[in-house]
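User: My instructor asked us to take a sequence, write out its structure as tokens, and then describe one feature of it. I'm not sure where to start. Here is the sequence I was given:
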Amino acid sequence: MTSIKTAIILAAGRGSRLKERTLNHPKPLTPVNNITIIDNLIRELHNQKIKDIVVVTGYMSEKLEKHLQAYHKDTNIIFVENEIYDSTNNIYSLWLAKEYMEHGFFLFEADVFCDESLIHELLNSPHHNLIVVDQHKKGMDGTVVELTEDGLVKEMYLKRHQGEGFSYYQKYKTVNFYKLSGYYSQKYLIPKMENHIDRNDVNVYYEQIIKEDIDEGHSFYALETGANRWWEIDTPEDLEKARSIFNEK
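Assistant: Let's start with the prediction itself. The structure tokens for your sequence are:
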């Protein structure tokens, strides 16, 4: 079992691409079959003995907090609110939780539904810095990486780098789950985030920093999802896909 006992879940976004499904509740409370996205994630982290779960809220924060307090009474959930979620990106939400990164942490985005076995593998990996990835398939959208034969991430391509003619051959989609060590967080991640915040550069993604560090030679290992099921839910089509993947759960 890992020595890291803190997980940070980013759950501030509006989720506008889900259209009417997020008019009356925050995106993380969208149900996949019989359980919401964030309830599934928190239950799995609780089962894996994570001590502190930090949830960064934003859109409909009060509704999300009340729900989680009611449904996870035996779990230590710490709430951090991004009050300007509608004018910032995830780098700002993550920066707000910086005080919980000192001893390392697991990072999750609250729009991914997955098997508990995937969480178990992430939490029990021996590597200090880890990115969960899956072989790129049609319908996937977002950051992708290339790997070495030893399973290291050798190149990261943000969405803006994937222009016309970009090849997804031997590329892997990031699942938006990470393990980041205390040393890396204190030495690189937090100072670089603060540089962005000091410049009021709050509309970038935290992946920009990880990409910069990979380019500079920092080691990030990849954990392939393998047979573990997962799906990122951004659109109504994604939601139907997730419900289909997990229809027996």
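For the description part of your assignment, you could build on this observation: The chain has one domain: 6-245. Try explaining in your own words what that tells you about the chain.
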